Amino acid sequence: MKRTSAGWQTFNVFNILFLTALALAMFLPFLNVLAQSFSSSEAVVSGKVLFLPVDFTWINYQYVFSDAAMWRSLGITVYITIVGTLINLAATASLAYPVSRQEYVGRQWVVMLVLITMVFSAPLIPNFILMKELHLTNSLWALLIPGAISAFNFFVMRSFFMQIPSEIIDSGRIDGCSEMRMLWSIVLPLSKPVMASLGIFYAVNHWNTYMSALYYINKPSLWPLQVKLRQLIVSDEINIDPSASQFSGLAHMDPEGIKMATIIIATIPIILVYPFLQRHFVKGMMVGSVKS
Question: Where's it mainly located (predicted)?
Answer without folding.
Answer: membrane
